[in-house]
Amino acid sequence: MSERIFSLASLTVLELSPPEMVDVAARAGYSHVGLRLVPATPEEHHFALVADAGLRRQTLARLRDTGLRVLDVEILRLKPDTVVAEFEKVLAVGAEFGATELLVAGNDVDEQRLTDNFALLCDLAAPYGLHPHLEFMPWTDARNLEQAVRIVEAAGRENGAVLVDAFHFDRSGSRLEDLARVAPSRLRYAQLCDVAGPRPADMAEILRQARNERRFPGDGDCDLPGLLRCLPANIPLSLEIPTLQLLEQGVSGLDRAQMALDKTRELLARL
């Protein structure tokens, strides 16, 4: 069996520039990183890899020097007014970095249009060797696993996939029995973290927790062993674990990345 891929997600160390992130991932023992080519929100601090050729060169140099690879790039949003062809520059940059996976959010209440645009994105991404993953999040219009699978299957593209994030799986009320029935070809990587406490009734609080207050694997209440058993064996894991409190306490990006990886390895050793 090949060694499992562990990738450091941007949101875990969002304060770091991409070259710094690559260095931290290498020092902590990761094999891959994920790069945020498009910001998730207008407010977040963003390093403009798509527009800044110099920053791309620096990041590519650090990847070469460390031997790390890029697993995924993010985040494209499919909205009512989306023109899919306008994403081509982002796809080209993703391919330049050697990424194989592309994170996509569904922000269109019209499910048929969302499905059609996802299919178009898959077609546009295929020549770049990219697999668009529709990530379900309870505050978006792909709210849970069931809906995300329905959209991806209806799109009918071989390179289309569903992204399971442990936080969103828990907070969307998705079910392990449904996950166990998803075709393995639709599950190419997953995002791992833990979740503390019961699901809040307030969606704004769920969103705040998702972006600022996750737990390291084994430190929360999510059935991560059950989740991992329902996913394909040895699936690549992207560790997306923002911990704003630790950041504010002065815990370095390296230390947080290391804790995430150590806790994940401890969890997997108990399976």
What does this structure look like?
The protein is an alpha/beta fold. It has one domain (6-269): TIM Barrel. It is built from 11 helices and 8 strands. Strands 1-2-3-4-5-6-7-8 form an 8-stranded parallel β-barrel, surrounded by 4 helices. α3 links the parallel β3 and β4 (101-106). α1 runs parallel beside α2, α1 crosses α11 and α4 (111-125) crosses α5. The longest helix has 17 residues, at 253-269. It is globular. 46% of the residues are buried. The model has no long low-confidence stretch (mean pLDDT 96).
Features:
271 residues, alpha/beta, TIM Barrel, 8-stranded parallel barrel, 11 helices, 8 strands
Structural class: alpha/beta
Per CATH, the architecture is Alpha-Beta Barrel
Helix content: 40-55%
Please identify the top-level CATH class.
Alpha Beta
Give a quick account of the main beta sheet: strands, pairing sense, barrel closure: 8 strands, parallel, barrel
**CATH homolog superfamily:** Divalent-metal-dependent TIM barrel enzymes
Order of helices and strands, N to C? EHEHEHEHEHEHHEHHEHH
State Rg.
Answer: 17 Å
Say what the CATH topology is.
TIM Barrel
Number of strands: 8
**Average pLDDT across residues?**
96
